[in-house]
Amino acid sequence: MNNQVITVKQLNKHFESNHALKSVNLNVQQGEMVALLGPSGSGKSTLLRHLNGLVSSDKNSKGYIEVLGTPVQKDGKFCKTVRKSRSQTGYIFQQFNLVSRLSVLQNVLIGALSATPSWRSLSGRFTFEQKRQALAALKRVGLEQFALQRVSTLSGGQQQRVAIARALMQQAKIILADEPIASLDPESSRIVMEILTDINKQEGIAVVVTLHQVDYAKRYCPRVVALKLGEVFYDGPSEHLNEAKLAALYGSQTELTNTENQDQAVPQLWPQMA
Ligand SMILES: Nc1ncnc2c1ncn2[C@@H]1O[C@H](COP(=O)(O)OP(=O)(O)OP(=O)(O)O)[C@@H](O)[C@H]1O
């Protein structure tokens, strides 16, 4: 049985003269938990966005992406099946992408929209079963007591957990998380990473997560794919990512990516995370 859930072949992406992704190849199997590492600007987010059909690759460059057995894009053109794979892919953003004026429960229910007739979703009428599932998803991330509260009243870490519950409600078969902990404090980061790990282990859902902190990658992700200047620089077990490889990947930034030094390091290296 083919358990491959992500196939990327020969992916190239230019933003004008900037060659952001250079012949990237990547295979991810069902049940894997993969950290996408690399210095700022190395192409992590661009790669993740290609997987969900948010960005198209260079035309005529023979690039090909398949997610969950469904072609997403080929040769710089989206395939007709892109919506299908998107509906099965949970995408977690750094800034949560929640609807701030809606309640926590309503935000989770948004995950069910692709499986809801439009007349129901337009009138905001979800079935009893959908509401039960949404509450179960909230319980899974430890937030059921906040179900009826406006989502904007929750902390950043809690909002990210709502976004994960929304992906569960979507019945996502894989999760792509783009810097999900970049704006969170260490304790909230730990909780979010543990929830993602738990979903990966319990449901066998593949998770690909872009991270800036090497120690989180090593702690939670058995496999690391590291990009450097748009190329795959390392793809292998996170435990084999030694100091020499990290130094070559990040240069002088290496020690500063350790979260123990986060308070001093992050504002200097990545001002957007401060
Ligand atoms: N929409 C865009 N238009 C022009 N250039 C872009 C666009 N998106 C990304 N880039 C460029 O592509 C390169 C890769 O960016 P990307 O955001 O993927 O890197 P990253 O590794 O995710 O960085 P960070 O860790 O800082 O988020 C960068 O040089 C960036 O400036």
UniProtKB/TrEMBL annotation:
It is a peripheral membrane protein. InterPro entries: AAA+_ATPase (IPR003593), ABC_transporter-like_ATP-bd (IPR003439), ABC_transporter-like_CS (IPR017871), ABC_transpr_PhnC (IPR012693), MetN_ABC_transporter-like (IPR050086), P-loop_NTPase (IPR027417). Transmembrane segments: none annotated. It comes from the Bacteria. SMART domains: AAA. GO terms for molecular function: ATP binding. Pfam families: ABC_tran (PF00005). Residues 6-254 form the ABC transporter domain. Keywords: ATP-binding, Cell membrane, Membrane, Nucleotide-binding, Translocase, Transport. This is Phosphonate ABC transporter ATP-binding protein. It comes from Agarivorans aestuarii. The gene is phnC.
